[in-house]
C-alpha cells in the first residue's frame, strides 16, 4: 500500500497558531519534507520544531527529514525543475508505503511553492490531503488589531512584484500586498498617488523573531520578504 501526502500549512510563524490537525498529521507521518529557499535557514522547520516541543507523542529526532530546494526566482523553467525534483524525492517514500508531511509557511492554498509539488503527486495518482494553515495576512491584521474587511467590502490580494500593481491598487475595496520585498518605496509612491497611503499598514516577520509592526506604512523605510502590507480604502480599521 502506498503512502499518503499531507501538505500542511504551519501558519505565519507563531508556533501557537499551528492547528491541531497539523499537529495530528505531524505525529502520524514518519517522513517530513521541509522547503528551503536560497538561504541555509529552514524557517518552516524551525517553526514546526518550536511548536511541537513538549507535545506528547511527537519525536522530531525520530523523523526522516528531507529538504526540498525551492529557489527564489521567477524563472518558470527553473521552478518547474525544482518542483519535479521535490515531487520525485517525496514519491520515493510514498512508493515505499510511508506517509509524508510536506510543510509550508502560511497556508498551502495561498502563494505556496508546496502546492505545485502537491499537484504533481496528486496528478500522478497518489493519495493527498491539504491541511490549511493561518494565512500571514490574517495574522498580520490580528497583530494590528484591525479587520481585513467589513460588511460588503471586497478584498483584493496580490503579490508585490506584479507588473500591473498600480492598476490593482485602483480597484475598489481593501488590499493585501504579499511579499513586497524590494518594492516598498515604489508601493508607497503608488499608494500616495492613489490616495490610499493613509490607510496602509505593514507587519514584517509576523510571528517570527524580530517582528515589526507599522500601524502607518508611511513610517516604514525598509522591509524583508516576510512582510505583508494591508490597505484600507477608507482609512485604518
Q: What's the CATH class of the largest domain, please?
A: Alpha Beta
Write the H/E string, N to C. EHEHEHEHEHEHEHEEE
Going by CATH, the architecture of the largest domain would be: 3-Layer(aba) Sandwich
CATH topology (fold) name of the largest domain: Cobalt-precorrin-4 Transmethylase, domain 1
Provide the residue-averaged pLDDT: 90
Give the percentage of residues in beta strands: 15-25%
Helix- and strand-based class? alpha/beta
Radius of gyration: 19 Å
GO molecular function: precorrin-2 C20-methyltransferase activity
Keywords: Cobalamin biosynthesis, Methyltransferase, S-adenosyl-L-methionine, Transferase
EC number: 2.1.1.130
Pfam family, one: TP_methylase
Amino acid at each position: 500500500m502506498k503512502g499518503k501526502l499531507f501538505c500542511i500549512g504551519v501558519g505565519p510563524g507563531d508556533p501557537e497558531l499551528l492547528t491541531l490537525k497539523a499537529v495530528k498529521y505531524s505525529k502520524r507521518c514518519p517522513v517530513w519534507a521541509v522547503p528551503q529557499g536560497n538561504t541555509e535557514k529552514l524557517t518552516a522547520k524551525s517553526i514546526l520544531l518550536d511548536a511541537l516541543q513538549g507535545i506528547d507523542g511527537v519525536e522530531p529526532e525520530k523523523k526522516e527529514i528531507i529538504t526540498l530546494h525551492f529557489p527564489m526566482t521567477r524563472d518558470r523553467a527553473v521552478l518547474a525543475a525544482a518542483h519535479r525534483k521535490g515531487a520525485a524525492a517525496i514519491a520515493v517514500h510514498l512508493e515505499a508505503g510511508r506517509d509524508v508531511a510536506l510543510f509550508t509557511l502560511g497556508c498551502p492554498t495561498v502563494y505556496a511553492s508546496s502546492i505545485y509539488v502537491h499537484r504533481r503527486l496528486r496528478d500522478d495518482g497518489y493519495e493527498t490531503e491539504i491541511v490549511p494553515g493561518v494565512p500571514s495576512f490574517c495574522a498580520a491584521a490580528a497583530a494590528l488589531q484591525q479587520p481585513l474587511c467589513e460588511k460588503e467590502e471586497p478584498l483584493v490580494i496580490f503579490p508585490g512584484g506584479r507588473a500591473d500593481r498600480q492598476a490593482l491598487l485602483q480597484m475598489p475595496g481593501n488590499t493585501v500586498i504579499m511579499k513586497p520585498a524590494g518594492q516598498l518605496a515604489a508601493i508607497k509612491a503608488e499608494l500616495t498617488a492613489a490616495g490610499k497611503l493613509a490607510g496602509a499598514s505593514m507587519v514584517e516577520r509576523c510571528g517570527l523573531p524580530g517582528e515589526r509592526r507599522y500601524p502607518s506604512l508611511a513610517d516604514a523605510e525598509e522591509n524583508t520578504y516576510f512582510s505583508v502590507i494591508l490597505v484600507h480604502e477608507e482609512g485604518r480599521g
